[in-house]
Amino acid sequence: MMKSIHSILIGFMLFGASGSYAQSDPQDDAGFIESLSAGITDIDTTALQALFSERDNVVLVDVRTPDEIALLGGTIDAGRQSINISRGWLELRVAEAIPDKSTPIVVYCATNQRSPLAAHTLQAMGYEEVYNYVDGFFAWRDAGLSVAVQDEAVGTMLFSEPVEVAEGIWSAIGATAPPTFENSGHNNNLTFIVTDEGVIVVNAGDNYLLAQALHREIRERTEQPVKFVILENGQGHAMLGMNYWQEQGATVIAHEDAVEEIEARGIDILDRMRSRNRDKSMGTQLSIPDKVIGNREVLELGGERLEILHLGTTHSPGDILVWMPERKLVISGDMAFHERLLPVFEDTDTAGWLETWEKFADLKAELVVPGHGSPTTMQEVTLYTHDYLQYMRNEIANILDDGGSLIDAYKVDQSMYRHLDTFDELAGLNADHIYRSMEFE
After folding, report:
1. Per-residue pLDDT at 338
2. Start-end of H helices in 250-349
3. Helical axes 90-97 vs 115-124, angle rounded to 10°
4. Rounded Cα–Cα distance for residues 88 and 398 (Å)
5. Are strands 190-195 and 169-172 parallel, antiparallel or unpaired?
6. Which residues contact 273 (CB under 8 A, 6 or more apart)?
7. Rounded CA separation 84/35 (Å)
8. 329-333: strand order across its sheet
9. What is the predicted pLDDT for the residue at 29?
10. I need a labelling partner for 348 at 20 to 30 A (CA). Which of 89, 184, 311, 334 fits?
11. Which domains, from first to last, does the chain contain?
12. Cα 277 to Cα 281: distance, rounded to the nearest angstrom
């Protein structure tokens, strides 16, 4: 038996040394790729930009590896649905990602080596409208066109390093995207306030190692210990890192509704994070906040006065914000959105959110540090939170008054919000959830 296996291996070695496959000529390889181009539709940068402006349902498929994307500048950002399926996995994964074979697809790689092969494969699989971007990602990037990165702070668990948004107040701005292995679950803002008597952190982070990475950044800016960690709600990216902070001696604070959410759903949230983050979830254990608060709690430390407020129903149970009245600054959590489309969950009360917004507006904040995205103004978050919710409720109320169905809700025109991150993931779901909840109001 061993002799037979040995003979087979020798045969493979001889074939590799003398067969035509081992003697492949680079000129022939180039010729093969060129021959494929005759059967596919190539487009350059100008044509790609024109396609984006004319069509709103184009799907971009980057066939490079995740490591290439992370290390070589990101992906094309054109306000359209963009997915990454490595060339080697394309045949196995594309049907799940793009089930409708009439969907217009643009495939690209770095320099037009793999994308012709990918375009040819997609056509062979029955996709009806496939384009190959011949210039490639490097040409798009080098032309100064918009790119999206999966990790701005390579070498750390953080998506981006903290920036000082006001004197003594720092925020590590998370990716305005769903949580992924590449962004380590850092898709919300992790904010901290440095005082002469200690540090206050808002949001514990998605996992133990992410919290640890944030702590390293804090230590580079101050020798003061972290005294308090405030959870904006009971979602995973707000609370799963709390066991790290508790190990450091910090007191973790959360609203009573958020604590109920953690107790009811925490194990499931932890399991999903572990499945996504794999080895990056190391050290993360479900924990319970140390201090449970009601609708208002005042925290004073090192000359700073913070009001931790639960103003009412908003995005998810136990949503709180941190109001600093002397500074006219609010760390709004998931009360307010602006750079990504807000998510409406199955249990989100959009009517209650709009009522609560009036109390939020009454604070008259001059600087808003949201739960997701860069610091901004009340005018900006009003446009993309309050006004979006009001618009969607008005449109769906009209559908219900006219006897329309859920299918009509999916057709509500949300194109004015298409430029926001997570639009493709959330627009349809939001219409669905708002319609279903308004049926019973």
Report:
1. 97
2. 256-277
3. 60
4. 47
5. antiparallel
6. 179, 185, 206, 207, 236, 240, 281, 284
7. 25
8. 296-301, 304-309, 321-324, 329-333, 367-370
9. 58
10. 184
11. 32-148 (3.40.250.10), 164-295 (3.60.15.10), 311-441 (3.60.15.10)
12. 5
Task: Report the C-alpha gap between 37 and 50 in whole angstroms.
Answer: 21
Quote the CA–CA distance of 101 and 266 in Å, as a whole number: 38
Q: In what order do the strands lie in the sheet with 59-62?
A: 41-43, 130-133, 105-108, 59-62, 81-84
How much is the pLDDT for 31? 64
Phi, psi of 4 (to 5 degrees): -65, -45
User: Token pair of 59, please?
Assistant: 């799907």
Residue 375 identity = P
Q: What is the pLDDT of residue 79?
A: 60
What's the confidence (pLDDT) of residue 18? 37
* 339 close to 374: Cβ distance less than 8 angstroms: yes
Q: Which residue has the tokens 């169905």?
A: 405
Between the alpha carbon of residue 210 and those of residues 39, 172, 183, 184, 288, the distances in Å are: 47, 11, 10, 7, 18
Residue 62, helix vs strand vs coil? strand
Q: What is the pLDDT of residue 80?
A: 63
**Among 364, 296, 372, which Cα is nearest to 328's?**
364
Per-residue tokens: 35: 């021959």
In this prediction, residue 424 carries a pLDDT of 83
Note the pTM of the prediction, 2 decimals.
0.76
Contact 137, 76 (CB under 8 A): yes
96 CB-near residues (< 8 Å, 6+ apart): none
The predicted pLDDT at position 360 comes to 98
Measuring CA to CA, which residue among 255, 225, 230, 227 is closest to residue 242? Answer: 230
Q: What is the pLDDT of residue 256?
A: 98
Helix 387-401 to helix 423-438 angle (10° resolution) is 50
- Stretches in the chain below the pLDDT threshold 50: 1-27
The one-letter amino acid code at 52 reads F
Distance (Å, whole) CA 370 – CA 174 = 11
Give the pair of three-digit tokens for residue 207.
Answer: 């996992």
Phi-psi region of 28 (alpha: psi -120 to 50; beta: other; left: phi over 0): alpha
Question: Which helix H or strand E contains 161, and what residues bound it?
Answer: none
Token readout for 312 is 């009412």
Residue among 315, 334, 350, 339 nearest 423 (CA): 339
Q: Where are the alpha helices (H) located in 248-337, listed in sequence order?
A: 256-277
pLDDT at 81: 80
Q: How many angstroms separate the CA atoms of 441 and 439, rounded?
A: 6
